[in-house]
Amino acid sequence: MNNPYCWNRINTNLIFGRKALMDEFLTQLPSIGGNSFGLAGARRMGKTTVLRAVERDLLESQDVWRNSGTTLIPIYIDGLSLPRPLEAGHLWKLLLNPIRVALGADGAEPNELGEQIDFQDFVVIAKSLLSASESVPRVIVLFDEIEHIVVTHWASGFFANWRALLSNTPDVSIYFGAVFSGARELETLQHDIGSPLMDILEWRNLHSLTRVDTSDLIRKPCELEVEDSFVDLVYKETGGHPMLVQYLMQKMLNCSSLPSIRDVQSAVTEFESLRSWQLADWWNKYCTDDARHVYAGLPSNLDYTAISKISAEIGPYQTGKALEVLQHVGIAEVNDAGYATRRRGTIFSRWQITNGRNIDRISIDNGLGEMLAEHGSELRDKYLSAWAIYGADMPNYSGAVSEMRDTITLVLHKLAPDSAVEGQLGFKYELGLSKPTRRQRVTYIFGAKGKEQGKSVASDDELLETLASQVAVSVTSTYSAASALTHTTATRPLAYRTLKQGESILAQLLVPKNANN
């Protein structure tokens, strides 16, 4: 049979699961006063396919729109094919040429235009062309792979010009609509507080396909009559990622006109053998530290985890951003109700378990580790051991909590040994004790630091005394909580919180003068 799948080639006939998005683009973009868009999605998620399909449908509907008095001028720009080095003036000239052709002004250009034109000249020339048209022109720019612009030194000015062109240039803005498409780099335009396009564009994100859309992508292009169990396996392995689905289907149909469960397993094995670098690229390049941390903590059996549990560990904002990235890459999903998340796609999940377990190293504060090492390698080793235990997949993380608690104990005894604390003028043991308490050791440490600064923790520097008291309270409460968790079950969120509290205490004990400054 004629194999319709080619995973690394654009095919606008294989556009499934994007109907609502396509309808929105094809309704809004041609309309005077319609919205412009930002389209975000990871590599191979289908951004280019969507833009090319929009371009195709706009071109096919030109006669219909012309009969209603509108001249559609779709312009597709591939960021990957732009010349290097590139300047903003090249792009304004590149946009002007198809406008001239579409409106019949395709004669010789004025000599002074050259290879580049600035934005003001573009506006003047475009306005004269567009306003002279008998019908109402609508220029629709489909800008693919925008990250090649984002990284230039002139990007901010270029996008500021686009803001003016789309919303703030009288008698010209009505003629223009646009879609800016990109991967992770597009986040600069979407979320950066200084982005000129943040509140101008309607933002849309491409995620992996649903099970229904995956079934359509499997069955409809070549009218395959496969069992639901076949679709279920492909969906489970790929998570509905369109590139992975097409890869498996292409490989299977090259071998059999009616692929089986065994063919799915063979195609998966081939992908894992030949293209595991693709998975490493998703993990290392497109996932943020928080996203990797969240994914590593999700159950490998694809069960859901409450988002509130993750938020308690790393914070609501960080959790939201991490889940946004994971859905963007296509390796996790949030349920319809929005309160739970899980891994998506066993191909990637298996790879991460084997190759991505170093994620918890990001939680280690290398600077803190170096400060601990200055007082003895055993201090640093205890600290690293706490995070190493946390990085393992286990039902109880009390061992990690215990190691952090012991690290604090070692630091207290190293910086405030019994003899030094007991040798202070006027020292008295607390009631019923024969050794200095943690509170007394903290006070001694801050007092010693105060003396280095020519101050006394007891009287000469009230701020230093207050800080010493606060840290002493924090040490006592954190130590007690850690001890309690050590003898019970420490869940991952509780362990993470305790480890981070321990880091904060260690930093203040080792460098209390920084806190005072």
Sheet with the most strands, sense and barrel status: 5 strands, parallel
* Coarse structural class: alpha/beta
CATH superfamily of the largest domain: P-loop containing nucleotide triphosphate hydrolases
* CATH architecture assignment of the largest domain: 3-Layer(aba) Sandwich
- In one word, what is the shape? globular
Unreliable stretches covering 5 or more consecutive residues: 453-460, 512-517
Q: Identify the strand order in the major beta sheet.
A: 2-3-4-1-5
What value does the average pLDDT take? Answer: 85
Helix fraction by DSSP (H/I, runs of at least 4):
55-70%
Distance between the termini: 75 Å
CATH class group of the largest domain: Alpha Beta
Helical run tally: 25
Query: Cα-atom Rg, whole angstroms?
Result: 31 Å
Quaternary status = single chain
Question: How many strands?
Answer: 8
CATH topology of the largest domain: Rossmann fold
Strand content: 5-15%
What's the number of structural domains?
Answer: 4
